[in-house]
Amino acid sequence: MASGELASKTIHELLDLFEKKQASSEEVLDDVLSRIEQHNPKVHAYLESPDPDRMRQQLRDQWKASPSGRLRGIPITIKDNICSTGVEVSCASRILKGFRSPYDATVIERLRREGAVIIPRANMDEFAFGSSTENSAFGGTVNPRSKEGDARVPGGSSGGSAAAVAGDLAIAALGSDTGGSIRQPASFCGIVGLKPTYGRVSRYGLVAFASSLDQIGPLTKDARDAAILLSVIAGHDPRDSTSAPNKVPDYEAALDRLPKDVTIGLPTLPSKGLERNVEARVQEAVKVLGLSTVPIELENIGQSIATYYVIATAEASSNLARFDGVRYGARANGGSLMDMYLDTRSQGFGAEAKRRILLGTYVLSQGYYDAYYLQGMKVRTLIKRDFDEAFKQCSVIAMPTSPTVAFRPGEKMEDPLQMYLSDIYTISANLAGIPAISICCGSDADRLPIGLQLLAPPFREDLLLQIAHAYEQKANWPTLRASLRVPH
Amino acid sequence: MAVVTPDIVKQVAMLARLRLEGKALTQLAAQLDEILQYVQQLQAVDTTGVEPTSHVLPLSNILRKDEPQPSLSQEAVAALAPAAHPPFIAVPKVIES
Questions:
Q1: Considering only CB atoms, which chain B residues are within 8 Å of A244?
Q2: What percent of chain A shows pLDDT beyond 90?
Q3: Residues A464, A391, A201, CA angle at the centre, nearest 5°?
Q4: Is A205 exposed, middle or buried, given 0-12, 13-18 or 19+ CB atoms closer than 10 A?
Q5: A374 touches chain B (CB under 8 A)
Q6: Which H helix or E strand runs over A338?
Q7: pLDDT class of A408 with cuts at 50, 70, 90
Q8: In terms of residue numbers, what domain contains B17?
Q9: Hey, is the C-beta of B16 within 8 angstroms of any chain A C-beta?
Q10: Contacting residues of B for A237, CB less than 8 Å apart
Q11: Which CATH superfamily is domain A11-299+385-482 in?
């Protein structure tokens, strides 16, 4: 096969090739590694260059341990906030630089059990704070769908994961989604990104940003791959008391069983800043699906960003208090204990992390708690109720993932509020705890991808994947995908 | 009217163990003020009689059996610290003589 061809395949295509003995897992790994070597210096999806010998050793070990695993020999990358034994986990922050995890996250254990080969480690916004991956302390990532000479961001915060999959520098990836951090980069990079129901996937070993909103999920080249990966990582974990005891269906086996009576709810949305191309492609995609539609109202969706930036920053300020230079990570030396804390944190955190820590500390402080944090949690109840009501009228809700296609680096860096507002359509799923998927539904005049987002009631990932799969069949996904750019 | 002033931000920064001075402080204070002005829209939402949501799942009081499980060794944990005298973690002097 031509160079780069194996790296461009999906998980299920590769498993087929292995089965028919038309390709070996060694060839796949070598193809992926050579693409990383060739393209990562420019794309910067990875924070380190994988060591080929160690990767091949991992493959041999994995193949031996799990010869019939569902992910046998498949190279998968993980966001730099998911712990893997012996591997550096920095959250793209200077404060954790050099930290090597002494244990595996539950999702890593599950990937390994099924024979996956893990390529460390995908770039991200520092501590997952951002929508462009520009907040990485180690430099941003370039969207592999960008035109030569007109670089775009990959979205964020799982921008490295999305760029690796879109650029054929990994077969699939894991990311984390607190307010859209899987779906928005999937949309910007023209791939599939799924945020599962809160509690569907264990958060054990995920460095916490906002504990009541964070979920780990797959970023893949198609819906079938997302179904395969979710089947592997989902399920109850005694080490995460917020993980749900609900049974995990075989999402892949159910892919073709889309019920006939599915109704799509179309909400009235805040349309400020919504690009015409995005609106048009999303409307077309809903038509292509050919399912019945019903208009719905999400009365409080306009409050979702304000609610999110109170709750998420409050939780983040508390979660990030642990980075104090004492037990792990970087420490600034000299002076008293207080100086050590102040210097470590002031030198270790980047600008956006400081902004969010301060916001969170402020909204939690005495005198402001009721007005901000408590009120935010009440509005969260109203947002959740809106979805409960909407799902009495429809099976799923459709809307754009992002109001725009991938923007240019620097465009929103000086204005944090503008950056926050770009998450308008993704944030409410996290506040309500419901699953949501982004799939590519075409591109604009510059061939920049556009994402269709589908949201479902809790634990109905099966429905999201079935509809995503049906769309790929009806929209002729191979042709659509071939129309998007890949670096070569 | 400003919601937060540089003085308030400086005070909050101390609570969060962050050092902020000069231009960085005034710039950040202005950004935080803009964000908080935006967030103030929440005050206008009628939440009379609405319970707060801190967690979306109908789970409560998740308990597990109180049984000893293998955990990381003291050596492995001390090895992560920026300064250590295994099995202890070293820190600057807390009590001055």
A1: 57, 59
A2: 92
A3: 45
A4: buried
A5: yes
A6: helix A337-348
A7: very high
A8: 6-44
A9: yes
A10: none
A11: Amidase signature (AS) domain (3.90.1300.10)
